[in-house]
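Continuing the batch. This is chain 6 of the set; chains 1 through 5 are on the previous pages. Same settings as before, nothing changed between runs. Recording input and output for traceability.
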Amino acid sequence: MTQKFQSIKGFYDILPEATPLWFKLEDTARRILGQYGYNNIRMPLVEPTELFVRSVGEHTDIVEKEMYAWED
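Output for chain 6:
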């Protein structure tokens, strides 16, 4: 059986042919923003489910249909 892979809703892949353009854009933004005292910050790619359940409710479309959760 062949599996079909697709992006998660709302996420977009940057494919190899577009990567150099994105690197240039990011480098330019870092350089300009750095001149004004801004620095890079890296945020977590995942958050605890409880954070969203608490803020939007456990039985909402966001929690039930648009989130991916797993046990560690």
